[in-house]
Amino acid sequence: MKYRVGVDVGGTFTDLVAIDEKGMMKISKVPSTPDDSSVGIMNSVARAGVDLRDATFFAHGATVGANTIIEHKGVRTAIVTTKGFRDNLELRRGQRVIYNPTDMYNLQMDLPQDYVGGYDPLVRRPCRFEVNERLDHRGNVIKELNEAEVRAIARELRAKDVKAVAICYIFSFLNPKHEQRTAEILREMLPGVAISLSSEILPVIREYERLSTTTLNAYIMPIMQSYIRNLRSKLSAAGFSREFYIMQSSGGIMSSEVAGQRPVYTIDSGPAGGVSAAADLGILIGYPNVIAFDMGGTTTKVCVIKDGKPSVTTEFYTDGKYFSGAPIMDMVEIGAGGGSIVWLDAANSVHVGPQSAGAKPGPACYRMGGTEPTITDTDMVLGYINSDYFLGGDMKVDIELARAAIRKSAADKLGMSLTDAAYGIYRLVNANMIGAMRVVTVQRGYDPRDFTLVAFGGTAPVHSVRMAQELRIPRVVVPMAPGCFSALGLITADARYDVFRSYVVRTTKADPEHMQAIYDEMKTEALKKIEELGFKKAEITLKYGVAMRYEGQAHEVTIEIPQEIARRKVTEKSLKKIEALFHERHKYLYGHSSPEAPCEFFTLSVSATGPIPKAQTYEIEKGTASPQQAFKKDRKVYFEEFKDYVDCPTYERSLLKAGNVINGPAIIEQMDTTTVVPPRQKARIDKYGNIIIEVKT
């Protein structure tokens, strides 16, 4: 058998999904190895029993970039920029609230000198250099590049033992000539130093956003390249000699070679795999409007998928501080996962996360030295997770350690019973995650009642139905391998390459020929990158977009240009059609539009997609309404409706058949997660093996 393999590295577990030519699936879930993620990857391959010599495709969701930034473990990086713009990285956009909310309007506020709790720039001032050069707002050279200054800077960089350089000149997105020449000089004088050019990484207007994105790319590039070399070596030794792929934060995959040059595009790649898979699943089963709910071991991620298309943004702050303008799934992420630690503050108020027990020492029940209670401990004490069947019985856990941790850290301090404390924690974490769902739905004009909740990640199916009841979401879908669902998305995602160019002009003064030339240039670049992966031009899909705004606005609205317009040359007539689409989109998003007001084009974009052959969708065996063949036993589980533990039937998911109906209360167990069906709820199994729960409030 030939296999397509996807591996997602999370903060707690590393998940693998392998699908053969018949659509049969193999999965594995092993503890992550933070010191060297590739060890966990190879462990997951061994656990699944997959021979990589039989693999035709290997894709990987990487957390290397995000972890490097959050932990400040990137290489020593320098910035070379236009004279007068040395401190842009630190000045940012004046969001003083990040330091002290009470000082939002204090013009004399001092930044914390030690940066504790504040913004610690990845490149401090001694490593930020200025060069005499200047372009005007049309890209014309006002002052030629001073090459002697560049060479002098190179000598300083060598003395400082700098390993990466971000080059970002003002208006270089219009004319990259000076950046390119600077890079040539630095590569000549500093062989082996990683160089990132803003005109290649993110050639768009707004110097801080462009500089920050380029700096992030440079900061993590050597780390990512080293990681890729290490993983490539291990895959090759195991018999996989092909190119492997890495998921982009926007949902498409890229070659590992391109990922090494543009690592900033992979910062949130693991969660993107799950959202991509949720979008595909929604279309497959007839529910294209989906809320993707990913609750793993460390965090919870929530993303809206409308009409089969996930929301994508170009404004993202890693660790809440470091801006990236690279496309990324528009997710809200909070520190709530199975490993999130429960703690009390000085006033004895209960909090969950964002601190996590991670893979080591892990929750208290793991018997690896952890003593603080986590969500996994809480779910186990309530009976939702079977302590005798954790990871399908492969991992031995101790429920008594979980009980002891909750008693010591919460119940005794609050003067509550163990059960009341545990269920209070369960409700609290649900409330936190419901808040995240409200952010991506209600606060953005979406009604949760119009969506289906797709629950995945190792912990989501334990909590999903209760949350759907609160938000009036009509149904919950738990896919076949929810705990490894993000890894599945790595197999099904298409190859993608995004190109951006800014063109800021009032719509009435736009030059159609110039816009067409920009689109043609971007199209050529995007096609070249996808063709390099072996795709033929005829099978590549191109999508054109444009970010627009009303003149004077600070933010833009991005619209996708319909194919019937994109296929033709840009004309005055097509520009008016695009403008009309902008007014429609603005009204849809914000409830109003101003067709008489002048508008501007801001940034043009082209996305090229190479179709990855989809694995055959496997249909499970048909059965009757009775799930008796999958029944395991009754065990004690706590439900709020009964205010007590009750005998609850449990079922083995691998034995369920299409057409089976399970009435709650019930527990459905499998290796990678547990699905809780509360009282009065009804779960049915569809032909693909998905658990579909029609929610009653």
Q: Strands, helices and their partners?
A:
Blueprint: E1 3-9, E2 13-20, E3 25-31, H1 37-48, E4 55-61, H2 64-70, E5 77-82, H3 88-91, E6 128-131, E7 134-135, E8 141-143, H4 147-159, E9 164-168, H5 177-189, E10 194-197, H6 198-201, H7 207-237, E11 245-247, E12 253-255, H8 256-261, H9 269-285, E13 290-295, E14 300-306, E15 309-310, E16 312-313, E17 316-318, E18 322-324, E19 328-329, E20 332-334, E21 340-344, E22 350-356, H10 375-381, H11 399-414, H12 418-440, E23 452-456, H13 460-471, E24 475-478, H14 485-492, E25 495-506, H15 512-531, E26 541-550, E27 557-561, H16 563-566, H17 572-590, E28 599-610, E29 631-639, E30 644-652, E31 661-663, E32 666-669, E33 674-677, E34 682-685, E35 691-694
Parallel strand pairs: 1-4, 4-11, 5-6, 5-9, 9-10, 13-23, 23-24, 30-32
Antiparallel strand pairs: 1-2, 2-3, 7-8, 11-12, 13-14, 14-15, 14-20, 16-19, 17-18, 21-22, 24-35, 25-28, 26-27, 26-28, 29-30, 31-34, 32-33, 34-35
Describe this structure in words.
This protein has 697 residues and is an alpha+beta fold. Helix 11 packs across helix 12 (418-440). It is globular. The relative contact order is 0.10.
| CA radius of gyration | 26 Å
- What is the approximate shape? globular
Oligomer: single chain
Mean pLDDT level: 89
Strand content is 25-35%
Give the fraction of residues assigned to helices. Answer: 25-40%
Structural class from helices and strands? Answer: alpha+beta
CATH class of one domain: Alpha Beta
Question: Which short descriptors sum up this protein?
Answer:
697 residues; Nucleotidyltransferase, domain 5; Dna Ligase, domain 1; 9-stranded mixed beta sheet; 6-stranded mixed beta sheet; 26% strand
